[in-house]
Amino acid sequence: MSIKMLNIGSCLSYKGYAGYTFVVSEVFKSKVNINIDNEDIGNLINYVLININGSSSITISHSDIFRCNWAILEHTLSKKEINHLKIFISTNEKNIEEEKRKVIDEIINFPEYNGLYIYDNSETESKSVAKNIRKLLKRHFHGVKFSVRMDGTKSVNVNWVDGPTEEDVEAIIGRFKKGYFKSMPGVYECNDDPFNIAFGGVDYLSVNRDFSDELIKEAINVLSRKYGDDIIVSEKTLEEYKTGNLWMVHHDKFKCGLKGELNRIMNSLDKYSAK
Predict the structure, then answer these.
(1) Cβ(192)–Cβ(180) below 8 Å
(2) Is the pTM of this model over 0.70?
(3) What are phi and psi of 76, to 5 degrees?
(4) Which of 187, 159, 233 is nearest to 65 (CA)?
(5) Fold of 111-210
């Protein structure tokens, strides 16, 4: 890979950012050992790119620009034009922060968020998020036992058996996930939601519903009533489901096999409201 650096003022675009044009406003690199190969050097050269409409800026490595096929454009911007963009972004960010602060103050006082911990940097963000998730789940799904565990400082895992559907749980706690991966590999985009500033947020929120033997049997009975012995023959039992063998049968009928169809049915069965 070529390590020829881009210059300040170089313009480029990438389809993953809706075709917007960016300009290189800063170039910086870490100290590298002379024995490091070209690809490693490319990972240590970084650029600050400003969207020329003045709305945002990103930092990206030299390697990612070429690996992800950014288009290097012919035209360039002068340092004076770049400084104007920086001033515009700075002013815009101050206005945004003021508006955001107003929204945060409103969110904190919403009745549905009453009693949640306000994130104040006194502990890891994932710890605050885990505590707030426990509060909300207890409030909305009384009697259901949830396991809410931190996985490092940027991830929280939520598990439970039967009870509400994953969709219903995500509707309550989904806002604690504060970003997503863009189409460009290695780029994680934060939403910068005022909710997360107030109550915390994590990069990764895993929501996993496990199935009891009773729910598995119920799903088997649902398919048995619908399709009869053509699909659910006597050997298609709870034990066969647990071995994973049912993944391998009836792909002619179900896209993900018989086990996939059983999982789809179980995911749709709300065992909390049914109580």
Answers:
(1) no
(2) no
(3) -130, 165
(4) 187
(5) GMP Synthetase; Chain A, domain 3 (3.30.300)
